[in-house]
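Handout, page 2. Input:
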Amino acid sequence: MPLVVIDPGHGGSDPGAVNGSYQEKNYTLSIGLKVRDYLLANYQTNVLMTRTTDTTVSLASRTNLANSNNADYFCSIHINAGGGTGWESYIYNGTVSQKTINAQNTIHSTVMNAIGSKYGVRDRGKKRANFHVLRETAMSAILLENLFIDHSNDLKLLNNSAFITDLSHAIGEGIAKALSLSKKVLYKVIAGSFKDRQNAENRKNYLSSKGISSVIVEVTISGETWYRVQAGAFYSEAEAEARLKQVKDAGISDAYILAG
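Output:
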């Protein structure tokens, strides 16, 4: 599977940009972890973090980690400072591949579509710079400057959990689009579907007597309500097949797998 490295900037003895008690390193870690979780929950990919706690990590260690693991993409997360406002992205200002340029275009537009009009975030544009993490990575790389810690409105957004979630998910979605990552497929084992909820309850109780846990999921099909008895949901097709066999061995011959 593709390997994405997420790099929360600064950390440990290096707070990054500071505004009173607010430190860049804390925001970058929060965003980075949410990007990781979004990618792992929704796409077939592996994610490697340069840090997952408040630890000091050198610039060389960050790029060495990505290079030694032959990562497919590197995304560095930062918070800006210096009196401006808004969101911007960077790639290396030297020679880069078309893939790097295309990825920046995709990630930038995906993020701005998510946070621009909804939160009034200014688009500061797609830029290029000679940053270490962009220059020394062997793979395509991007650095994101996520608002300004020293701008009052930007800081309000950085302290808004809904904004941080929307921003992080948009970054994750942008990376997924840029790398053409495959969506994760969830394989649900359906052990019966009934119009009468009591029948679904009976099936659930029967499965429980056989040592098989299940839940009842209400769905609407062509305007009608059905009660599905779901005996597990798996990202692994093999695990779903194993559970299906267990359900059928318990006497539920019409059980099936619903993928989606």
